[in-house]
Write a structure and sequence with these properties.
Elements (H helix, E strand, L loop, with lengths): L1 H15 L3 H10 L7 H13 L3 H13 L6 H15 L1 H10 L7 H8 L1
Family: Belongs to the PPR family. P subfamily.
GO cellular component, one term: mitochondrion
Length: 113
């Protein structure tokens, strides 16, 4: 239920030009939502599947600000979002900045996509 409300608010941002971080903070402060990592990952995945790459990337950046750790596969999704919104060279720079344990076949494949 919470995830659906979060997803609806975030997917509307593409049309109304709002910011993901502002919307998430509003949900947390004004509406009393507890936004956890699993909800954010599911929303980012859904947004990415709908070609809302910038909103998905913004979620990953929000998570980074909150120091939420990502798995190798989640870094792979983030690499894909970066490549779609900022270009492959920026995605490659992000990949190169990752710790070696996150440089897996899965994340590398996202660069070759």
């Amino acid at each position: 239920m919470i995830q659906k409300k979060i997803y609806e608010k975030l997917s509307d941002l593409r049309d109304n030009g709002g910011k993901v971080s502002v919307t998430l903070y509003q949900l947390m402060r004004e509406e009393g939502f507890t936004v956890d990592k699993a909800d954010l990952i599911r929303c980012a995945d859904l947004l990415g599947k709908q070609y809302h790459y910038q909103q998905a990337l913004d979620i990953y950046e929000f998570m980074e600000k909150l120091k939420m750790p990502l798995s190798a596969s989640q870094h792979g999704v983030r690499i894909d979002c970066i490549a779609q919104t900022k270009g492959v060279s920026v995605a490659e720079t992000y990949f190169n900045s990752l710790d070696h344990r996150f440089k897996t076949q899965s994340t590398y494949r996202k660069l070759l996509k």
